[in-house]
Sequence to fold (141 residues):
Amino acid sequence: MQRRDFILDGCRACLLAAAISTGLSGLSSCSPSYSVFKADIRDNKLELPLSLFEKDTFQIVRPAHFNYEIAVQKNPDNSYKALLLKCTHQANQLTPTGRGYACSLHGSHFDKDGNVTKGPAEQKLRELQTGLAFGKVIVYL
Ligand code: FES
Fold:
């Protein structure tokens, strides 16, 4: 067996062990699929069509010419929660994990409500004010 094959087999074995130990649902949280909605900023706010939340109650929004994405969650009471995906440690862009958000720079994690679940970050994510107007979800930046 050549060295390259040995390493590949070792990686496959590790992935299989991880899948067995965490369950397959755990793997899906490692690389969740989510759509990104691109939006323009007008008067310091975003206007999102309500139809975005018909199939899924969760949406990542990427404002044009803005440094960070925003996670928008539709709540059971039809209100909306928007979190700025900016790490509160040193301002790195966060990545959705399926269970919350992760920072690739120093490893902080946040839950879906923006609370810190793993440091070094100490402060929860900034929540942006939301509202409904003219059949749209408004996110105030
Ligand atoms: S910038 Fe996110 S953990 Fe440091």
Q: What stands out?
A: The chain has two domains: 1-31, 33-140. Helices lie at 3-22, 24-28. Residues 1-31 have pLDDT under 50 and may be disordered.
